[in-house]
Amino acid sequence: MSMLSVLFLVLWQxxxxxxxxxxxxxxxxxxxxxxxxxxxxxNDALLDQQLQQLQKNQRELEDRISRTALQQTxxxxxxxxxxxxxxxxxxxxxxxxxxxxxxxTP
Length: 106
What we know:
The protein is mostly helical. The protein contains 2 helices and no strands.
């Protein structure tokens, strides 16, 4: 049996498996749709559950955004402090290396 024939058989079997899986999923979906039509309360409960989960996710996201904004503010403050310290250090270094020629101390 040639490699091409083996490949064809494997692909044919895979196609059959995928087709049966799709058919099973379609059947399950039809059953669920029928169940939701027969019992609207199940649909309401599902929607309520999804709404609660979305609200929870939104609160968590808002908390995360608040924490991130606070961290950014703290980071900006730290950067400003580092910049001021660096400028002060540069100024002190400059004063040590280049003394004021007009000062009274030699």
